[in-house]
Amino acid sequence: MTTLCQVSQNSLTLTVPYPDDRAHFVVHTSAGPVRVRQIIFRGALTITRKEIPLSGTVEYAHSASGESISQSASFEFEVLNAKLSFEMHKLTGLSGETQILLRKIKDL
């Protein structure tokens, strides 16, 4: 599965195929069912850079051994009349993966 992304000035085009034969969408037409193999998303992209202070950090560890489980950092900010929290959680175990979470804290 390959996702293609093209960006030119403010225009953004994402071509996203369905991952396999089991995951697809069918449109029923007068000529019969038509399988949708990919979706093309087109839109505008605006990037604004703003420094936001770190609102919290935490490290989770096993209580007995002290071995680290994960390390997290969060940033709180306001956008579109809502307060949001952007969080990054780095799993320090075997996977080492980083999980990103965007949460709505409250409406303003």
Explain this structure.
The protein is mainly β. It has 2 domains: 4-44, no CATH class; 54-107. The chain has no helices and 9 strands. It has strands spanning 4-8, 11-17, 25-29, 32-36, 38-44, 54-61, 68-79, 82-91, 98-107. The strands form 3 sheets. A 4-stranded antiparallel beta sheet has the order 6-7-8-9, with no helix packed on it. A 3-stranded antiparallel beta sheet has the order 1-2-5, with no helix packed on it. The two termini are 40 Å apart. The relative contact order is 0.14.
The gross shape turns out to be extended
Going by helix content, strand content and strand pairing, the class is mainly beta
How is the biggest beta sheet arranged?
Answer: 4 strands, antiparallel
Mean pLDDT: 84
Number of domains: 2
Rounded to the nearest angstrom, the radius of gyration is 21 Å
Q: If strands are numbered along the chain, what order do they take across the biggest sheet?
A: 6-7-8-9
Strand content range: over 45%
Specify the helix fraction band. under 10%
What string, H for helix and E for strand, traces the elements in order? EEEEEEEEE
* Uncertain runs: none
The beta-strand count equals: 9
- Kindly, what is the distance between the CA atoms of the first and last residues, rounded to a whole number of angstroms? 40 Å
- Individual helix count: 0
